[in-house]
Amino acid sequence: MKKILVTGAAGFIGSHLAEQLLERGDAVTAVDNFNSYYDPALKRENVKKTLEERHYELYETDICDYNALRIIFQNTQPDVVVHLAARAGVRPSIEDPNLYHQVNVIGSQHILDLCKEFDPSHLVFASSSSVYGGILEVPFSESMDVSRPISPYAATKRMNELQAHVYSRLYGMNISMLRLFSVYGPRQRPDMAIQKFAQLIIDGQPIPMFGDGSTARDYTYISDIIDGILRAIDTPLEYEIINLGGQQTTTLRELIDVIAKHVGKPAIIDRKPLQPGDVTITYADISRANELLGYVPKVGIDEGIRRFVESFSASSLALHF
Predict the structure, then answer these.
(1) Is 153 a catalytic residue?
(2) What structural domains and CATH numbers belong to the chain?
(3) What are residue 7's DSSP bridge partners?
(4) Per-residue pLDDT tens over the stretch 203-235
(5) End-to-end CA distance of the chain
(6) What's the mean pLDDT in 20-47?
């Protein structure tokens, strides 16, 4: 049994990961501050099942609180740390860049310092496809120059990669930086496009489509991302940046159409101009993930949206924003 400490454990990805870790027999120390970025009740619902598990312990702690974090590390002595906690979202980061720097950079510095002190075998650290910025050459490979991010959020995630590299070089820490590409599925944040679009179609309300619908994303279903994270947990690497994506692109117009198909109602489109910080395309080269972790995504966009809509329609929480 491994002792895994997971930050951001009540969120979308973290709650799915905790369940899979418990299912395979690991012990989970969960850290989350249940902030109000979106309704904390949704995060409470995410952890409701795992709170009943014997080998699950939840700490309501902010990663910006170094002293509280240190007590958790000292009490639990984790074998592996998975750092998912972050302030997410490109557009909100433009409105409040100082908050994003405080949480994503300073908070992550605390995690690095505590991993240095308590010496888990390795740290698995969530980065983001947003670091690729406005690059148009696809697919995106980890060797590309990502020195010019185009949003505060992207800048913080690139800074995380640099922070981690410094600690790996100075202190010999094993750190895997996972660049996650547009993760979606049940429990995703209510501000994310797929959930918002599904609710608007159900309600017969217009969908705001920014641009002409040609912008494209590499959408990755949650089960594929969890598989990649589990593989990283089980594969200590000295310092690596690794893309985890779906290895296919879907335009915004195609995305709306496939959601409408599975909802069973037509979509009403409200055309709007592109927003600052938006990128034209994301598309992951996952050859490194395949080589180092044996990662192969299995759920395509049509099947993933079908599963999401099925879960979304059945949820008693659907959707009260």
Answers:
(1) yes
(2) 3-314 (3.40.50.720)
(3) 31, 83
(4) 999 999 999 999 999 999 999 999 999 999 999
(5) 40
(6) 96
292-309: per-residue pLDDT in tens? 999 999 999 999 999 999
Q: What is the pLDDT of residue 277?
A: 72
Res 47: pLDDT: 97
Average pLDDT of the residues in 35-49: 94
Closest CA to 237 of 133, 139, 312, 164: 164
Structure tokens at 26: 């690991």
Tokens found for residue 132: 């690729």
Query: pTM of the full predicted structure?
Result: 0.95
Rounded mean pLDDT of 163-168?
98
Q: How would you write the chain as a 3-class SS string?
A: CCEEEEECCCCHHHHHHHHHHHHCCCEEEEEECCCCCCCHHHHHHHHCCHHHCCCEEEEECCCCCHHHHHHHHHHHCCCEEEECCCCCCHHHHHHCHHHHHHHHHHHHHHHHHHHHHHCCCEEEEEEEHHHHCCCCCCCECCCCCCCCCCCHHHHHHHHHHHHHHHHHHHHCCCEEEEEECCEECCCCCCCCHHHHHHHHHHHCCEEEEECCCCCEECCEEHHHHHHHHHHHHCCCCCEEEEEECCCCCEEHHHHHHHHHHHHCCCCEEEEECCCCCCCCECCECCHHHHHHHCCCCCCCHHHHHHHHHHHHHHCCCCCCC
Of 132, 153, 167, 221, the active-site residue reads: 153
111 and 81 Cβ atoms separated by less than 8 Å = yes
Residue 317's pLDDT band (cuts 50, 70, 90)? very low
- Average pLDDT score over residue span 69-84: 98
